[in-house]
Specification:
Length: 590
């Protein structure tokens, strides 16, 4: 078909509405649900203009890009309505179209009204692949869309021109990391570092991250370990005219609900370096070391599994003698390698690895540790970098820890809550508070009061640490626990109360035990009887769509704690509200 014929054909496709969308799901793998679909436009099957690259390049040449964009949006919204789809509709938009003076204003809003799709359900994806001619005009156009209620995403982050600049100026709801950084991410420390940096930045800026192009379960597992939840790719669902309605459990790893702190594992300091086969000639390995002066060791693998490691000083020692080359040059490297290198799984905590190094007197600080994943070679970790990372974590934790109990303080608590809200995860927050603690301090003194606070901290740690639940110390007699497994919350809180009740009287004189409490001056300076200390626990399950920050969660938990304190003695109150009353009042006024 000639160029002239293609031009006429394109106009016909637009005019006669022969374009149609394929829908690819965007999945929250932490909850196993579909949060939306991306609409990918196609021309008639088998047609020269079937695929978008040719379709849009021709439209750009003909200067009918605006007409094509509107036709695509209309086709996507119409199909979305006809299929009675739920969740978000992600629409790809060329950023330069938004700056085109001939582009009709208000058309996207009119289409959303025509097809009955609320603007807040539609996500405008601005691709970074296109060179942006006028960022200031684009910024104004995006702000206009945001004011109308549409959500914004930066697509293909890292693939092209000005993604980070757009991110900083437009404050998008989503960023989508380009598939280049996802392909074989489990084997590339550089790609993992890039994605981890984007995740950290997104948490600070309250932007949700979607990763594209996931094609293998290894890639998915690696991303989930790093805290990525919103995922898209052929592994989870190919583009299809009929949208995927549910997530098949077989698509997700069996342990997809398990969350670990990637930054506290050996994986966070892994380097992906060249490895050699166990059958490689020793002379070839010597050449590798000779040519690269920075190499201190090379992993040796057999298939995908680790066979050993060959260190620079070892191979140099073998070849340094008069007959070294004659004896070893043609022998496989497995003949001279270390067959028992220090090796750990990628999810091993930094503390565990540190203990292994401490217990091994033969470990050199300049050596490498082999890191495996499901028994296969994953990378190496420099002991020097490992110790540096551990020091950084300890310094950071100590800086924000409560000086009395050494538990994480307010900053760490807020960061954990923000992360849970950002990832839209279900979690419980428990607020622990002692009843009548001030009068106890007045009678027994602050030193004795501190002993009770440290004792309570030990009880909470005893029951929660082994399950991996987070424990923080706000200050004074106030503690917070964050439960990632909600099924355990009530049972564990009841056990904490039981232990508290059984032993609290050991902090009292016998006369006060006999009296069942103490007499102390109230705030009005009047003598009042206060019963034996008891423990109030308020438990809440924040709704991430209603609690916008840790401030809202703190207010909700504080309300629940006050309700728990209304009961006589120790009590655990499970609050059913998922947002603080202040937010409820605001919503009633709107």
């Amino acid at each position: 078909m000639s160029e002239c014929d293609l031009t006429e054909t394109l106009l016909t496709l637009i005019r006669e509405k022969q374009l149609y969308p394929l829908f690819q799901p965007v999945i929250d793998t932490s909850r196993g649900i579909i949060i939306g679909h991306e609409a990918l436009i196609r021309g008639p099957e088998g047609h020269p203009l079937e695929y978008p690259d040719r379709l849009f390049s021709l439209a750009s040449e003909m200067q009918v890009l605006s007409e094509l964009e509107l036709a695509c949006r209309s086709a996507a919204m119409q199909a979305f309505q006809q299929h009675s789809m739920h969740g978000k509709l992600f629409l790809n938009v060329n950023p330069n179209v938004l700056q085109d003076d001939s582009h009709p204003h208000g058309s996207t809003l009119r289409l959303s009204q025509q097809f009955g799709i609320p603007p807040e359900q539609i996500v405008i994806e601005i691709s970074e692949r296109y060179p942006i001619e006028d960022t200031e005009n684009l910024k104004h156009a995006i702000i206009h869309y945001q004011k109308l209620g549409f959500m914004i995403a930066i697509d293909d982050l890292g693939a092209g021109y000005s993604g980070l600049k757009l991110w900083s100026e437009l404050h998008p709801d989503y960023v989508k990391i380009d598939r280049y950084f996802i392909h074989s991410i489990e084997t590339s420390s550089i790609k993992r570092e890039f994605v981890q940096s984007i995740l950290s930045l997104a948490t600070s800026l309250r932007t949700k991250v979607i990763v594209e192009g996931i094609e293998t379960s290894d890639e998915l597992e690696q991303l989930q370990t790093m805290g990525v939840n919103y995922c898209q790719g052929f592994l989870l669902g190919r583009p299809s005219p009929c949208p995927v309605r549910e997530v098949s459990p077989t698509l997700l790893p069996q342990n997809h609900h398990v969350s670990i702190n990637y930054q506290s594992t050996i994986a966070s300091v892994v380097d992906t370096i060249h490895c050699v086969s166990a059958q490689t000639r020793s002379a070839e390995v010597l050449d590798t070391f000779t040519q690269d002066k920075t190499l201190s060791s090379l992993p040796v693998i057999s298939g995908k599994t680790v066979a050993g490691i060959i260190r620079r000083e070892k191979i140099m020692e073998f070849f340094s003698g008069s007959y070294g080359h004659a004896l070893y040059a043609n022998k496989p490297v497995s003949y001279i390698m270390d067959r028992n290198p220090l090796s750990v799984d990628w999810k091993t905590s930094l503390e565990e690895v540190s203990q292994l190094i401490t217990d091994n007197d033969e470990v050199d600080i300049y050596q490498h540790i082999i890191v495996t994943r499901q028994g296969n070679y994953y990378g190496v970790a420099s002991i020097k970098n490992l110790l540096r990372k551990i020091t950084e974590l300890k310094v950071n934790n100590a800086r924000h820890a409560n000086p009395l109990t050494q538990l994480p303080g307010n900053i760490a608590i807020n960061q954990i809550i923000e992360a849970q809200l950002f990832e839209s995860k279900r979690f419980h927050v428990a607020y622990f508070d002692l009843n009548h603690f001030k009068p106890y301090n007045d009678i027994y003194g602050y030193e004795q009061g501190d002993q009770i606070i440290k004792w309570l901290a030990l009880i909470i740690q005893k029951h929660l640490f082994k399950y991996g639940h987070f424990i923080g110390h706000i200050g004074g007699d106030d503690f917070v626990a964050i439960f990632k497994d909600e099924s355990q919350t009530k049972q564990l809180c009841d056990k904490i109360i039981r232990d508290f009740e059984q032993e609290v009287t050991r902090f009292y004189h016998q006369e006060h035990i006999d009296m069942g409490g103490i007499k102390a001056l109230s705030r009005n300076q009047e003598p009042v009887f206060y019963p034996i200390l008891s423990l109030a626990i308020g438990v809440v399950q924040p709704d991430p769509s209603e609690c916008l920050s840790h401030h809202d969660v703190a207010l909700l938990a504080s309300e629940s704690k006050k309700e728990a304190k209304q009961f006589d003695g120790s009590h655990c109150h499970m609050c059913h509200r998922q947002k603080p009353r202040r937010l409820r009042q605001i919503s009633l006024q709107q």
